[in-house]
C-alpha cells in the first residue's frame, strides 16, 4: 500500500509544483512592457457591449428541462421495448410487464400536463397570456 | 378479568363520565348538573353491590388493567384488586356518595346556590378518584388517587371562593395534607427502589418481598426489618395527614368551611378514611414491623383523647363534628396498631355511615336555621323537624357508643383488642387508657350537641320558625339513620365470645371464610404475622364483659352528665366554669399557633438563608456558565458569517481534517 | 380485515406510495385550475393524503409487519433487498406522515395570498415521499436516490417565497451546500462500493465481516483489508453526508440560515421530518452495513466513538448558539441542532452495551420531537401570520392577546427543555438513563448540562410571552383555523405521549432491537 501512496503524493506534488514553477519562471524571464491596449478584453480591437452577467430568458432553461425529461423517458423505454417480448414468454402476465411502464408514463404525463397548463410551453412572451413563471421578474 | 368483574372498571368510570359531562355541558342541564352525578353514583352503587355479591360467592380479582411503563427492574401499572375489604369499602363509598348527591339537591339547589356545575363536577371527580383509590392494586396507583382526592377536597372546600375564609381553609387543607404526602411519596419511592414492585397482593407484592427479605437482606445499610419500619413510617406520613391524626389534624376543622354535604362525604366518611384504609390495605406490611404498629396505636389513642377534649368546648355544630371525626379516626388507628384489623375496618365502615348521617343531619339543621351554625342560637328543633331529630339522635347514640347502636359494637371491639394486647405491652396500655377516657368525653360532647340543638326552648328567631327541608334531604337521613341503628349487626363479636353464636360476620368476611379471598390478604394471615401476645383478665369471657362494661359505663356517664347539665329550656354555659382549661381547649391547644410558628419562625428564615446561598453561590456558578456560554455563543456567531462560500470552505476543511486525523489514526497511509 | 401479507409485496411501501400518489393528485388538481387554485382543496388533499399514509402505516404496524415471523408478518423485502419494510421503516414513515399532515393543515393559513400553491403542496408531498422512502432504503443506491428525492423539493420549498429576499437567499445557500454534501455523500458511496464491490447494506456488512469483497468490474473476490484506506475514507464521507442531512456539527451551518429564511411551516417540516429521515438512514447505514467491531478492525476507528464526539459537539454548540439568539426562529433553528445532538447519542451507544435501549430512546426522542418542534415552528408561523415581529421582544405579552396558542407554545418549550410531565422529558430521561447504562458517562453528563442550559432560553420565550408587557398593541389576535388546529393537535400529542408512553416506547425499542439484530 505504501508505495502506491508515495506515487500519489509524488503525482500531487508534481501537479501542483509544475504550474507554479512555470508561472514563476516566466514572470522572471519575460520583459515587462505596460500598455493600455493590453488591458482591453479583446486585444483584437473588438469593443465589449456590456457585462457577462445578464439574465437569459427562463424559457431557455425550460426547453432544456423538457428535453431532458423526454430524453430520459426514451432511454428508459428502449430497453423495456427490447426485452418486452422475451419477458412475456418468460412467464409473467401482461399486466406485470406492462403496468410499471404505464405507471412511469402516467407520472410523466401528469407532469407534462401540469407544466403545459402552467405555461411552460408558451414559447413566446405574449401580452395576453398570464405568464406566471416570469411575472415576478 | 372474568365473569362479573368485567364490569368492575365501570364502577370507577361512571363518576368520571359524570364529571366530564357536568364539566362540559353542566350549565345547560337542569338542576345544575346534578342528574349525571346521581345516575352515575347510583350505577356505581348497584355495581358495587354486584361486586360484593360476587365476592360473597367466593370470587376475587387482582388484575392488571393498563401497563403504564415497563423497565426490566419494575413495572408501573394500573390494576384492580377486589377482595372482601375493597368490596365492602366500594359499597360504603358509593352508597354515601349517592346519598350525598341526593342530599345536595336540598342543600345546594334548593338554596339557590350559583356555580352548581362546578360543585357537581367536583363531587363526580372526587367519587371517581376515591373509588379508584379503593380498588387500587398497587401503591403507586394509590398514591396517584390519594393526591387526586386531596385535590378534589381542595376544590370543594374552596367552593365559596369569594369569601375570605374558604380559600384560606382550602389552602391550609391542601398544604397540611401535602406535608404528609411528601413523606408518603418518599415511602413509595423507597419501597419501589428496594423491592422492585409496588403491588399489594400476589407473589410479586412488596409485602411478600419484604417478608422474605427479613433476616436475610439489608437495604441501603439498614436491616430489612428496620427498613420496613422506616418505609412504613414514611407512608404513614401520608396517612396521618389524610386521616387527620395528631399532629397533622389541624386542617380538618377548618375544612368545615366547605358546603356541608362535602363535609359529610369527603371530610367525614370517605376521603379522611383513605388514610386508615391504606393502612388496612397494606396491613401485611405494617404487621411485619412492631415499631410501626406501636407508633400507629399510640398516635391513634392520643388523637382520640386529644380531639375529644376539644370537641367538648366548641359551639359550632360542624366544629364539634369535625373534632369527633378526628377522634374517631384515632380509634381506628389504635385498632390497626394493636393488630385489630377487623375491629378497625368495622369501625371505619360504621363511622362512615353514622358520621355521614350526623353531617347530613347538621346540614339539614343548618338549612332550617338559615345558615346559622352556632348551637347556642338553636334549641327546640325536636318538634319542628322530627325526621331529622330521630335520625340525628340515632347517629349521636352510635357515635357516643350506646348499646345497641352500631358505634357501640365497633368501638367496644377496638377497645377490647387494645386491652388484651395492652395487658402485656405498657405503651399500648397507655394508648388504651387514653382511648377509654376519650369514650367519656365522646358521650359528653355528643349529648351536649343533641341537647343544645334540638332540646329546650328556641334561642333565636331562626330557631322559632325553621325553614322546611325537602324530601331529598329526608330520604338520605332516614336511610342512614336505620343503618346507624342496625350496622352493629355486621360483627356481633361479644355475642360470639359469650354465647358461642356464629355472628361475627365481618370477621369471617374479611378472613375469606366462605367468601372469596386473596392469598395473604386475610385477617388470619395478618394475625399470624403480628407479633403481639394476648392476655386476659378472668379469661376471654371475663375480659369481654369487663371491657364492654367499662366503655359503656363511661359513655353513659359522659352522656348522662351532659344530659343533666344542659337540661331545661335555657341551658347555661357550663364549660366556662373550666376557666383556663377551657381557653386552652377552645384555642385547640395552640396547635395552629405552633405550626404557624414553625412555618414563619423556623422554615422562613431557613428558606431565606438557603435563598441567599442560592443567590450567591449557586447563581454565581450558573451565571458563570451563562457568561461562558454567551461568550462561546458570540464566538460561534462569528463563524456563522452568512457567506455560502465560507460555509463550503469550512465543510471541505472539516472533511479534510477528519480524514487526516482518522487516516493517521487508522494507518491508511502506510 | 385484510392482512397486509395478502397484498402484493409492493404494497408494503404503502405510506410512501400514498404520499407519492397524493402528490400526483395535487398536480392534477392544480392543472385543472392553474391560475386560481382552490387553496382549501389543495391543502385538504395534502392533509388527507398524509393522514391516509399515517393510517396505512399504523395498520401495518398493528398487523405486525416487520415483527419476526411467528408473531408478525415478517420483514418485507422488495426488489431483491433494495428496499425493506421493517419496524424501523414504519416508525419513521409514521413520523413523516404526521409532520406532513400538521404542516399541510398549518400551511392553509400561512400560505394565504402567496403564489405557487399547487407547487408548494406537491413539493411538500414529494419531499415526504422521499423521506418515507429513505426510511425503507436498504442499499446505498436507494439511500442516495431517496435522499435526493427528499432534498430537491426541499431546496425549492425553502425558496418558495420568491419575492422575499431572505427566502431566496436561504434557498440558494441550502441548495449549494446541499449539492456539495450530496457530492461528498455519493463519493463516499463510490469508495465503499470500490472497496467491497457491493451496494446493498447487508452485503456490505458481509463483505466487511468476511473481509472478502468482489472486484467491481471483474467480479473476482478480493481482500477488503487491502482497501482499508478506501473503505475508511468512504465511511468518513458517508458520515459527513449524513451529518449534513441531520444538521449536525460541523455541517450545521446551513440549518439556521435555511430555517430562518424558509416559510415557517417549511422550517418545521425540514427540522422535524427531514431531520428524522436523515437519522433513519444514519441508523440504517451504520448499524446494518458497518458492524462496529469488524469495521473498527479493518479501518482502525470505531464509528460509534465518532458519533459520540459528534453528539457532544452538536448538542453543546447548538445549545450555546441558541442561548445568544435574539430572533426566535433562529433560536429554534439552533435548538434543533442541539436536539440532533441528543438523537446522535442513539448511534453513539451502538458500540457500547445496552445499545437497544439507547437507540430506542433516540427513536423515541425523534418521535416526540416531531410534535414539539413542529409545534414550536408552527407558533412562529402563527406569529409571522399575525405580523408581530421576529425577536423575543416582539413576542412580549402575546399570552394576553392569544392565550390558547401561548399555552400550546408553553407546552412545546417546556417539552423541548425536558420538564417532567411532558413528552420531551421522558424521551430525554430514557436517553440519559440509556447512556448511563451504556457507560457513556461523559455523554450523559453533556446531556444534562445542555438540557439545563436549554431551559434558559426556552423559558426566556415563555417569560416573554406571559410576563412581559406588550410593547404596543393590546388587542386580541386573529385565530386562523388551520394554524390553530395544527398547533393544538401538536400540543395535545406532546402531552398525550405521557400516558401513551408504554406503546410508543415499546415500538421504538422493538424497532431498535430489530435493526440491531438483523
Automatic annotation (TrEMBL), chain B:
Q: Which UniProt keywords apply?
A: Membrane, Transmembrane, Transmembrane helix
Q: From what superkingdom does this record's organism come? A: Archaea
What are the residue boundaries of the NADH-Ubiquinone oxidoreductase (complex I) chain 5 N-terminal domain, all occurrences included?
68-120
Q: Which GO terms describe its biological process?
A: ATP synthesis coupled electron transport; electron transport coupled proton transport
Keyword Transmembrane carried by entry:
yes
Gene source species: Halovivax asiaticus JCM 14624
Offer an example of a GO molecular function term for this protein.
NADH dehydrogenase activity
Q: Which GO terms describe its cellular component?
A: membrane
Annotated ranges, domain NADH:quinone oxidoreductase/Mrp antiporter transmembrane = 136-422
Compartment list = Membrane
Protein's name in the database? Proton-translocating NADH-quinone oxidoreductase subunit L
Instruction: Report membrane topology.
Output: Multi-pass membrane protein
Residues spanning the membrane: 6-26, 38-58, 78-107, 119-136, 142-161, 182-202, 222-241, 262-280, 286-308, 320-342, 348-368, 389-409, 429-447, 468-490, 544-566, 647-669
From TrEMBL, chain C:
A GO cellular-component term linked to this record: membrane
Q: Is Manganese among the key words of this record? A: no
Mind telling me which InterPro entries this protein's record contains?
A: NADH-Q_OxRdtase_suN/2, ND/Mrp_TM
Q: Where in the cell is it found?
A: Membrane
Could you list the residue ranges that cross the membrane? 12-29, 41-62, 88-108, 120-137, 143-162, 174-195, 230-254, 266-285, 305-324, 331-352, 358-383, 404-426, 438-458, 481-501
Per UniProt, what is one GO molecular function of this protein?
NADH dehydrogenase (ubiquinone) activity
The cross-references to PANTHER family, in alphabetical order and at most eight, read: NADH DEHYDROGENASE
Domain of life according to the entry: Archaea
Q: Does the keyword Ribosomal protein apply?
A: no
Quote the protein name from its UniProt record: NAD(P)H-quinone oxidoreductase subunit 2
Q: Which GO terms describe its biological process?
A: ATP synthesis coupled electron transport
The protein's topology relative to the membrane is:
Multi-pass membrane protein
The record's principal subcellular location, in a coarse class, is membrane
Q: Which UniProt keywords apply?
A: Membrane, Transmembrane, Transmembrane helix
Domain named NADH:quinone oxidoreductase/Mrp antiporter transmembrane is located at: 137-454
**What Pfam families is this protein classified in?**
Proton_antipo_M
